[in-house]
Amino acid sequence: xxxxxxxxxxxxxxxxxxxxxxxxxxxxxxxxxxxxxxxxxxxxxxxxxxxxxxxxxxxxxxxxxxxxxxxxxxxxxxxxxxxxxxxxxxxxxxxxxxxxxxxxxxxxxxxxxxxxxxxxxxxxxxxxxxxxxxxxxxxxxxxxxxxxxxxxxxxxxxxxxxxxxxxxxxxxxxxxxxxxxxxxxxxxxxxxxxxxxxxxxxxxxxxxxxxxxxxxxxxxxxxxxxxxxxxxxxxxxxxxxxxxxxxxxxxxxxxxxxxxxxxxxxxxxxxxxxxxxxxxxxxxxxxxxxxxxxxxxxxxxxxxxxxxxxxxxxxxxxxxxxxxxxxxxxxxxxxxxxxxxxxxxxxxxxxxxxxxxxxxxxxxxxxxxxxxxxxxxxxxxxxxxxxxxxxxxxxxxxxxxxx
Length: 403
What we know:
By secondary structure, the protein is mainly alpha-helical. It has one domain. Helices cover 61% and strands 1% of the residues. The protein is built from 18 helices and 2 strands. It has a two-stranded antiparallel ribbon with strand order 1-2. α2 crosses α8 (148-169), α5 (74-104) packs across α12 (210-226) and α6 packs across α14 (257-273). Mean pLDDT is 80; it is low at 366-399.
């Protein structure tokens, strides 16, 4: 599936976010980025009024961008919160680890991420991601007290600011690489956080019903609107999402120095929060189990036969706990409560107990003006490579074989 309606994945490489881009261009021309960041730092929840002191065009944009789509189904959103409560600990882990790595497996996206200086600090990026995911899992993530909506709208403006800086500095070849943070790039990351997460859970032997999967996708469709993804581009079913992800990866995924570097930083961050050195092999083994050996090799994720066995044992244990939970209301309540507590602890670890403000970057740094060297050009990926996915029409993940 390489087309979405009448729009091809190639066409989506040339589309950014015109509404946000226009607003940001005005802010830069007026030299207002620093002041806008100061004022926006006061806006943390959708229950708050948009702060006074912002330019009129930015206020108008924020008022429009914070509105939920008419098709958002409150019943489905209520049900998906129950899913979050049930499997929140696993969802948080696979999103922050597996989905992040999947984004790094797209060379153009990885290159773009490496161009902003702040993204070279994985602690801050992971803190923002952890808070973002935690806010999405709250009872009313798109309701009147939502923190997620505010964060998503700010992320949309950050993407527009990155596009502006890359264009104005000549740091990005749009003729060669398409628009930075394009609709195609956003879709790939969105798919990694939505349908790919459902596959990750299955690989951990976490049961997901058809209704839970479709409700989860619906929640991400609503979230995608706040992030600036055109609604008609997002698949409406999990099956369609699998097909789109497989086509996008087949077209755009591959190895890159930036992807390997970002993945190394990601692993080091997680290993840094696990006490001692004896368990350092656990994180890369878990990541390899989630994303499969081919993508893991592209990203240079370390391989260990011993830790492979540990992860296999861990998934068996999770499967057993799932069965106990399914047949015992007492166990269900206990495990759900434990899941909520662990999620909060994990968030505290990732954020170091501090709230980080999302800010529009005032400049870029870290660009080395060297072309990205890939061992295999995007668009020419070996058709035998096994990507992430599920079902007959989607290539499946392959696992490491003992060496």
